[in-house]
Amino acid sequence: MAAGTFLRKLLATRDERGRVTSDRFRLAVRKAVRGLTVGVTGRILDAGGADGLLFDPNASSLADNVTVLDLDLDSLKTGRRSYGKRGRFVCGDMTRMPFDDGVFAATACIGTFYNFPTADLVRQGIGEMARVTDPGGTIILEFRNAGNPVVSLAYRYAESYDPSLDGLTLKAYTVEEVTDVLMSLGLVIERIRYVGIPLRRLAIGFIVVARKKNGE
Question: Which of 86, 193, 210, 213 is 20 to 30 A from 10, alpha carbon to alpha carbon?
Answer without folding.
Answer: 193
